[in-house]
Design brief:
homodimer; 117 residues; mainly alpha; Arc Repressor Mutant, subunit A; three-stranded antiparallel β-sheet; 3 strands; DNA-binding
DNA sequence: TGAACAGTTGAACAAATGTTCAAGTGATTG
DNA sequence: CAATCACTTGAACATTTGTTCAACTGTTCA
C-alpha cells in the first residue's frame, strides 16, 4: 500500500464520495435553479416582488427596464416556480411562490457580509 | 386621477420599490454568488467537499473530471469564498469555508422537492 | 368594430462561460 | 539535479444566455 498518497485518492474513499453523490438529474436541477438567481435583473425583480405583488408594467417602470426584458425574465422565473401570475383585465400580476426565495436571498446576503469581514 | 391603472404603476408605488431596492453593487454580488452555484460541476464539487476535505486529484478521480477542469472550478469557488485550501507537500487540500453552502444547497433542494408535488 | 393598452414571443446579436489542450509552477525523492 | 507527481494557468473553442427589436395575442372601452 502506498502511503505517500493522501487518503482521498484511495479507491475506498472515491467510492464513498461517488456513493454519496446526488444523482445527475438532481445536480442539473440544482444548477438550473441557481442559474435563475444568477442574474442581476432577476434578482432585482425578485427583490421588488418580495415587497408586493406587481404587474409587468409596474416592475418595468420601477426598475427602469423594457417590458420585453421583464417579460422574458418573468418567464424564466415562472418556469423555475419562483413566481406565479394571475391576470386581472389587461394586467398580469406576478408574485413570489413561496418563502424559499427569501431564504436563499437572505442566506446569500449573510454570506456576502461575512465575506467582507 | 386614472383609476384604471393598477396601484403598482403609480409614481408613489414605483418610488417605494426603488427606495427599497438593494444597491447595484449588492445586486451584482448576489448574482455573481448564485452564478457560482449555477453549474453542475461546481455543485458536484461542493457536495463532495461537504462530506470531507479533499485534494484536487481525489476530487477529479471521484467525480470523473480532468484535474484541469476541477482546478479551474476550484478557483471560481475560492474567489467566491466558498472553499478554502491548504497545501501539504505535493497536495492541495480543499474544504468548505462555512455553513452557508449547506444552507443554500438544502434550501434549493427543498424548493425542488416541493415544486414536484 | 377598431383603437389603445398590457403583455408575450421569436429571431438575431453580443457578451459571458466551461472545457480542453498545452505549457507552466512548486514540492518531493532518488 | 533530474525526474516525477500535484496542481495551476492562459488561450482557444463551442455553447449558453440576456437584451433588443418587431410582430404578435389578449383585454378593455368608446
Amino acid at each position: 500500500m502506498d502511503d505517500d498518497h493522501c487518503e482521498c485518492e484511495s479507491e475506498e474513499f472515491t467510492a464513498r464520495i461517488r456513493g454519496g453523490m446526488l444523482d445527475d438529474d438532481t445536480v442539473m436541477d440544482l444548477a438550473d435553479l441557481f442559474k435563475v438567481f444568477g442574474d442581476s435583473t432577476r434578482i432585482r425583480i425578485l427583490w421588488a416582488l418580495h415587497e408586493s405583488e406587481m404587474c409587468v408594467h409596474g416592475i418595468s417602470k420601477s426598475l427602469g427596464l423594457t417590458m420585453s426584458a421583464v417579460s422574458h425574465q418573468l418567464k424564466t422565473l415562472k418556469d423555475a416556480d419562483l413566481v406565479q401570475s394571475r391576470r386581472d383585465g389587461k394586467n398580469v400580476y406576478y408574485s413570489l411562490c413561496d418563502e424559499h426565495v427569501e431564504i436563499l436571498l437572505s442566506t446569500a446576503l449573510t454570506h456576502l457580509r461575512e465575506e467582507k469581514r
